[in-house]
Amino acid sequence: MHRHLGHAAPWILAAALVAAPSAAQQVVTADSLRVKLSGRIHVQFATTSVDSVDGEPEPSSDFVLRRARLTFDMTVNDLVAARIEPDYSTSGGVGRFTLRDAFVRLTFAPSLRATLGQFKRPFDLFQLASTTQFLVAERGGRIRGVRACGAFLTVCSYGNVAVGLLYADRDIGLMIDGEAVPRRLRYAVAVTNGEPFFGVESSSGKQVTGRVTAVPITGIAVSVNASSKDYGHPTTAAARHAVGWGGDVEIGDYDGGLHVQAGLIGGDNWRVARPASEDTTDVVPFLAGQVIATYRARLAGRWITGLEPAARASWADPNRNLAGDEGWLFTPGVILHFRTRNMFYLNVDVWLPNEGDTEYALVSQVSINF
Predict the structure, then answer these.
(1) How many whole angstroms separate alpha carbon 226 and alpha carbon 246?
(2) The pLDDT of residue 182 is above 80
(3) pTM over 0.85
């Protein structure tokens, strides 16, 4: 049985935290080296309608330190720069320290940059967006206790499939990118290990990911992306390559007014092996799509500078050969904007599977970014 969405009072108190102004970014100069410090603290309070998982009771609500992160951007000269970004976060009931970004970047020209280290694979629009600019509190949705997406053990959304199959998110390797045509055409190609961002190489194969973005008119960006990823076959452990592809469109930006992000991804779900009796194909196909639309109205309040209603519709089918495993994630919500990128999110994530019970969660988050 579902619990009510009660226990929501704590997020009202948490909203008061955003009244304080953000600290300015600090720049330290030593000889020719410049270091800029920035950071973010994101705290959540969330509920869940799930009563129990595998016979164990599921808490109806929780506070989560979603991320506490410092970013050090170092500039040596016009050619050499670097970033290191340590992070502490709690997710799935586990708190841990990790490194998010950690790379050296060589900028030969606006049309040619080389990045070596750990960075985001140049795949989909939603994963490439900074956590300081999210249009919803959780990229993939967060409803504790839902086990509805095969190997991913979560709601079956666009974001959870892209990251779960390692087509998106961070990896270690080399990326070449730049503006082929200033402000109109951008490209990025990366060769990486093909592992989770906190993992080390486990095979001799590599992952190749590419993305091209065109801006036909100001305010509209159209992108295509593809990835070929090495993996070990789920049953034989033989070395294989899986292919993911996608495309997305962005209308508007984060500065105000209408902002729409829409994307479609598909390809090989290499975590699921097709039975040998079916045919010679090793893996099954997947497909996922997502749309987020917001409208940010500027306000002249002393504390609140913007109000941004938001809505997301995300659909994913992790195995196109299996009926009934697909589902929808809907997220109505609102963002209150304070100074710069400081925000308060109030979302309701609603999971509607093709088969099974509808589940939901109230997700609130205070995001302080400096």
Answers:
(1) 6
(2) yes
(3) yes
CB-CB contact of 289 with 253 (8 Å): no
Residue 9 has pLDDT above 50, yes or no: no
CA angle 180, 263, 369 (to 5 degrees): 80
> What pLDDT is attached to residue 210?
98
Residue ranges of the domains in the chain? 9-369
Please give the DSSP secondary-structure letter assigned to residue 132.
Answer: T
pLDDT of residue 233: 73
DSSP calls for 54-106: TTEE--SEEEEEEEEEEEEEEE-SSSEEEEEEEEEEEETTEEEEEEEEEEEEE
Name the band, by pLDDT with cuts 50, 70 and 90, for residue 28: low
Place of tokens 């599977």: 353
The answer to whether 349 touches 142, Cβ cutoff 8 Å, is yes
Burial 228-265 (b: 16+ CB within 10 A, else e): bbbbeebeeeeebbbebbbbbebebeeeeeebebbbbb
* Residue 18 DSSP code: G
Q: In this structure, which topology does domain 9-369 adopt according to CATH?
A: Porin (2.40.160)
Q: Which residue has the higher pLDDT, 14 or 233?
A: 233
Cα–Cα distance for residue pair 186/188, rounded to 1 Å? 7
Tokens in use for 206? 């590599």
- Using a 10 angstrom Cβ sphere, with 0-12 exposed, 13-18 middle and 19 or more buried, the burial of residue 305 is middle
Q: Is 277 strand, coil or helix?
A: coil
CA distances from 127 to 99, 120, 122 (A): 17, 8, 9
User: Are the C-beta atoms of 163 and 155 separated by less than 8 Å?
Assistant: no
CA end-to-end span of the chain: 42
Ramachandran bin of 47, using left for φ above 0, alpha for ψ from -120 to 50, beta for the remaining angles: beta
Distance CA 260, CA 292 (A): 6
pLDDT for 23 equals: 44
The number of residues making up the chain comes to 370
> What does the alpha-carbon distance between residue 331 and residue 155 come to, in Å, rounded to a whole number?
12
pLDDT value, residue 90: 78
CB neighbourhood size of 151 (10 A): 11
On the question of pLDDT at 125 being above 50, the answer is: yes
DSSP three-state, residue 172: strand
The whole-number pLDDT of residue 93 equals: 59
